[in-house]
Design a protein that fits this description.
binds S-adenosylmethionine; 226 residues; Rossmann fold; 7 strands; alpha/beta; 34% helix
């Protein structure tokens, strides 16, 4: 079982759903599934290609809840200045071993700020932030809005946040939309897959692109979260 470290500005980030429901046998199962997929040369880069389309060349990218590092590794290879962060130290160990040239750090999403990121060797603000592979349904219950507020505060004005998660979990698309609006993010696109299949209300997956309004564009500043 991996050690789980917490670092950064939030003193005691609560245990995540990842820790309360996956750590243990399901963690090993998850790692083995990705090990097998990696060894078989499966396509593990769809999310990274999606982000690459949105991003300027050499963009500053945060892969939040990076898991085994597949999105960070691919975006690094594509020439972006990317940092992958995860609260699970076991995941970061796998990421560093698999993608030694990329930058990874054990940080809770709720603890992210510019100083913590700079100390970890990453960019301190971002053109694009990606929360792929169900990250938002695995954060601690009730922290989703705070996570969105924290990461959106790290976007440059006009920067974009991309989130992909399953629609059959406790955290719903409607809840996500309310949280996004509350922190001042504007929804620009929603798809049913990372391959741009059109959104449908009965889709089992939601990929959403949100933008932090540009100050010059007349948008509102992100609201603070109590
Ligand atoms: C299903 S995995 C997805 C990994 C990766 N994004 C991918 O698509 O391959 C979810 C990850 O979110 C991470 N996570 C959940 N809550 C977190 C938090 N508050 N801070 C940092 N990482 C978190 C977990 O540790 C886990 O590695």
């Amino acid at each position: 079982m991996p050690a789980v470290h917490d670092t950064g500005t939030v003193q005691n980030p609560p245990p995540t759903r990842w820790e309360t429901t996956v750590i243990g046998e399901r963690w090993d199962f998850y790692v083995q599934r990705f090990d097998r997929a990696h060894a078989e040369g499966a396509d593990l880069e769809g999310e990274a290609r999606f982000v690459d389309v949105l991003a300027p060349r050499g963009a500053r990218v945060l892969d939040g809840g990076c898991g085994t590092g597949r999105v960070t590794g691919a975006l690094h290879r594509m020439g972006h200045r990317v940092i992958g962060v995860d609260r699970d130290a076991g995941m970061i160990e796998i990421s560093r071993n698999r993608y030694p040239a990329a930058t990874f750090a054990v940080i809770d999403l709720l603890s992210l700020d510019r100083d913590v990121l700079a100390a970890a060797g990453g960019p301190a603000e971002f053109d694009v932030i990606v929360l792929a592979g169900n990250v938002l349904v695995y954060v601690a219950a009730g922290t989703e809005r705070a996570v969105l507020a924290t990461v959106s505060s790290l976007l440059v004005p006009g920067g974009r946040l991309v989130c992909g998660f399953a629609t059959d979990r406790d955290y719903t698309v409607a809840g996500f939309d309310a949280d996004a609006a509350a922190v001042g993010l504007v929804i620009e696109h929603r798809f049913a897959t990372w391959h741009l299949d059109p959104w449908r209300e009965d889709a089992d997956w939601a990929v959403t692109v949100l933008r932090r309004p540009d100050r010059g564009g007349g948008g509102e500043e992100p609201a603070t979260v109590d």
